[in-house]
Structure formats: C-alpha cells, structure tokens
Amino acid sequence: MAEKYEAQTREEICKVKDWPSKEDPISIATHQKVDADAAFSAALLQILRPHAALAFVRADAIITDNKCLAVDLCEGPRAVKGLGVGSAFGLVVRVMKDVDRPVYNALRRWAKQLNLTDSGKHCNDSVVLAELVSCWRSLKFDDAQIVSKAKELIQGKILSEKQTLELKKSAKTVSIENGVAVVPEGVRVRAGHLFKRGAVAVIRQSKCGQSVVISNKLLKNGVSLTELTSLLPEGWFVHPQGFLACFGSVKAPKDYRESGLKLEDFITIIKTWVMSHKLNRKNIAGNNINCEEVVQ
C-alpha cells in the first residue's frame, strides 16, 4: 500500500465496514457512465444490502449523507476511491476478508484484476472485467443495466465458491484405497479435491454411466488410460490424452447397465492397473517415473 494513502485507506475501510449496519433507508452512489470499478463496487454493495437505493452522479459530486456510501468517487466525507489498494472494488472486497470469508475468497482474484486495470497497469487475465463493461456499453446498456449485469456475475461467483466449499466437504467422505477413490452414487464431488487428498484415479457410476479419470501426476509421469483401451468393452470412450475413460457422460448419458462391466469388475481393473505401475518398478524407472509418487 502506498504510504501516502495509508491513512485514507484506513478511513475508507471503516466507512465500508460501518455502512451495512446502518438502518434503512441507506443508499449507494457512484459516478455516471460507470466503468468496471464503479459497476462492480456498486453491484457488490447492492448484494450486501439489497434494498439500498443506487444513484448515478457526476464524478465531481460531493456526497454528505451519512447513510450513503459513495464508491469510486473522490470528493466528500462518504467517498471510497480505494487509491491505496488500487480500486474501490478491491477495497470493498478486502473488507469482506474479515466480514464474509467465502465472499472474499470468491472475489479476490477479480479484485486483484481491478486493482491493476483501474490503476492503469497491465493485466494478463483472459477475460478482463473492464472489457465486459465495454461490451455492455456497446450493447447500449445504461448504467443501471450494467450494474445489474455485474451483480449477476458476482452472485454467480459467490454461489460457485459456496458450492466449492460444499464439494470439498463431500470429498472428505469418500474413501481412497491404494490411490483409487470410488465415488458413491448420488454424491457430488470434484475429482480435483480427491486428487489433493492423495487419490490418483477416481471412479464413478451414476445415471450418466461409468467413468474413471486419473490425476495430472500420473499423466505427467507417462501413465495413460489409453493403456486400457483393449480391456474395455465396445462402446467405451478413452480420451486421446489419456486422462478419461467412460461409458456415457453428463454430455452424452448412457445406461451403466449396458457398459459390459459390473462396478466391482471395473474397480478391480482400475486398482490392478494402478497397482501394476507401482509394482513394476523397472518399467517405472525406465520411464523416469518415481513409483512412490505414482501411488502413495
């Protein structure tokens, strides 16, 4: 944080922390012809206090109403510009770190992006929030519509983060044996969360079919599900990159009862295959694979 903005930043943080607890009617002000910082800051505040009124004012307006938070404005006792952080949105998200950690976790990367772009610095992200606002402006959206679109994105991002937390909890309930995790039917979980727990292969059976996916650790060590192509019955798909083998998927569901493999047999095949890479130490060494890293 730039030293000259330290006192201003502390004061602005106090304003943002204090504002949601104020009694109705409360309001939000930001400048007209909104840019990304103004739009996303106002949108996040509206999510925190859905009944807060929103006003678009001149950029040089001075807001004095104690129940109004003036985001991305520079002048007046209620202004929150976020110069010390990089953006008003970045400052509001920073406050969320202490107030609502899941919201902070969901939005911190977007905040980091706006801290760069709103300060005129380069951003390497593939989709830049400022570009989204420019696109909405090109579609003739007015300020209120742009803030509404920004609000939808933020709500989706927050919901996604909360769902991720639930999926992480679900992953802890799935047992892992010899590096192979079998996800019970009806349990929603991400393979990535199981890989972080030590699994190297994740097996599923559901109304969409049967599947197995292996970790990047195996792939990087030269292990590929294409090795099993000849063992799998007709109708199975093995991805050319070797990370997935499936009979049906959410994109193209199939009845797992027609896969040609009972779940128990499928599990045995995968466990035996994974174990073979652990036991065949000479093969692994010849392919520069550390067997303890392949299956822990």
Q: What are the key terms here?
A:
296 residues; alpha/beta; 2 domains; 6-stranded mixed beta sheet; 4-stranded parallel beta sheet; 10 strands; elongated; disordered C terminus
Brief overview:
This protein is an alpha/beta fold and 296 residues long.
Task: Summarize the structure in words.
With 296 residues, the chain is α/β, with parallel strands linked by helices. The protein folds into two domains: 3-166, no CATH class; 176-294, no CATH class. It has helices at 6-18, 36-48, 88-99, 101-117, 129-138, 143-171, 191-196, 216-220, 263-279, 281-286, 291-294; strands spanning 27-31, 53-57, 68-71, 79-80, 176-177, 180-183, 201-206, 209-214, 237-238, 244-247. The strands form two sheets. It has a six-stranded mixed sheet. It has a four-stranded parallel sheet with strand order 2-1-3-4. The longest helix has 29 residues, at 143-171. The radius of gyration is 26 Å and the shape is elongated.
Structural class: alpha/beta
Number of helices: 11
Q: Report the oligomer.
A: single chain
Arithmetic mean pLDDT: 90
Order of helices and strands: HEHEEEHHHHEEHEEHEEHHH
How would you characterize the largest beta sheet? 6 strands, mixed
Stretches with pLDDT under 50, minimum 5 residues: 284-296
Query: How many separate domains make up the residues?
Result: 2
Radius of gyration: 26 Å
Shape verdict: elongated
Topology, number of strands = 10
Instruction: Report how far the terminal alpha carbons are from each other.
Output: 43 Å
The percent of residues in helical segments reads 40-55%
Strand content: 5-15%
- Provide the spatial order of strands within the biggest beta sheet: 5-6-7-8-10-9
